[in-house]
Amino acid sequence: MSWETLSNQAITAAGVVYFLALMAHLVEWSALRTRPVQRASTPAVRVASGVVSLRDGSFLASSGQATGSTDAASGSTDGASAAGAGADDEGTSYRIAMFGRLGLYLTIIACLAHGVALFSRGMAAGRVPWGNMYEFTLTGSFVVAAGYLLLRKRFGLSWMGPIVDAFVLVLLMVAVLWLYSPVEPLTEALLSPWLVIHVMSAIIATGAFTLGGITSALYLVKARAESRGTPSDRGYVARLPSPASLDRISYRIHAFAFPVWTFAVLISGPIWAHQAWSSYWNWDPKEVVAFITWVVYAAYLHARATAGWRGRKAAMVALVGVATLWFNFIGINYFSTTSQHSYANGAPVVDLRFR
CA-CA distance, 336 to 332, in Å (whole number)? Predict the structure, then answer.
């Protein structure tokens, strides 16, 4: 079996497992729709109606309303009924937790298969696996999934699981169906250390900004739900962290991604451009939009630090930033006829001016 064949098979397997992980998460959250949320600060509590588990410190999935203990106090429910209801509820809680763990484990397996596909692609090409748009998409989606798994416990991102699985799955489908390109070597001029440094930093920043953008979008959804005055205690939105927590998580992710993007756009990119073109800046459309993205995120961080922007205003700016980021990634390649960085439709990068 060739390395390229292994890469194609591994990415197919990763897509299948991401889909299964998404299904597991959807089953989990569908079951939680009928159960009210009980906020708490401890990892887990036990109530009369069964075990209520706190997932990553962000929320509790309560069963009913502690039926057994309440009814026992009023004398309206006998011991046998309360015990039966408690047993049923504990079984339901166990099944919900089981599907949650299954979704997490499947995401880990899919991410590992995703990594194998990238490694195999690199071995087949004899270079780093981000030489064209197909490979960049595979690598960028891998960073999104891996970043979610790395930050999941630290920031309590279990609620992001189904969105990340769906987002990565869609990117893989786009890559395989529309962007696929057979393995071909790059021109000798592109075999530069800056290919690794510049593109890898851009990929890491893209993945982190995407996670931050997802968090900002969910902040707006959560804040809107709470602004209605009588927020629901059931469903997916009810189990999101508080708007303040989402705002804080988004800020931390963006604060990490911004220096990496700065290095990619304003340091490593111009250095490579000077080596290839004898000019640090060429006003290429991709360069211009990348700089616009940098300005938007700089404004986001500056406004938070100096003007005290929080919440909705900051989230809107963050979404503008991620929109310009993905337009630069996809739109420039398809809509620009003058960009020196264009490698749309998965065409191999053979232009000396690519960086």
Answer: 5
Return left, alpha or beta for 279; rule: phi > 0 is left, psi -120 to 50 is alpha, else beta: beta
Rounded to the nearest angstrom, the gap between the alpha carbon of residue 105 and the centroid of all alpha carbons in its chain is 16
Q: Are 60 and 52 in contact (CB under 8 A)?
A: yes
- 162-167: average pLDDT: 95
Q: b/e per residue, 337-355, with b = 16+ CB within 10 A?
A: eebbbbbbebbbbebebbb
- Picking from 120, 95, 109, the residue whose alpha carbon sits closest to that of residue 20 is 109
Q: Distance of alpha carbon 311 from its chain centroid, rounded?
A: 20
- Long-range CB pairs of 317-320 (<8 Å, 24+ gap) are 318/212, 318/213, 318/216, 318/250, 318/254, 319/213, 319/216, 319/217, 319/220, 320/296
Pairwise CA distance, residues 247 & 315, whole Å? 8
What does the pLDDT look like over 28-86, one tens digit per residue? 888 877 766 765 444 443 333 333 444 443 344 443 333 333 343 444 444 444 444 45
Say if residues 221 and 237 touch (Cβ distance below 8 Å): yes
What are the distances in angstroms from CA 307 to CA 6, 252, 275, 310, 350?
52, 17, 40, 9, 46
Residue (of 146, 179, 176) closest to 13 by Cα position: 176
pLDDT at 133: 84
The predicted model scores a pTM of 0.80
300 Cβ contact partners less than 8 Å away, ≥ 6 residues apart: 254, 309, 314, 317, 318, 321
List, for residues 131-157, the tens digit of each pLDDT value: 788 888 999 999 999 999 999 998 889
- What are the structural domain ranges in the chain? 186-355
**Tokens encoding 73:** 């106090």
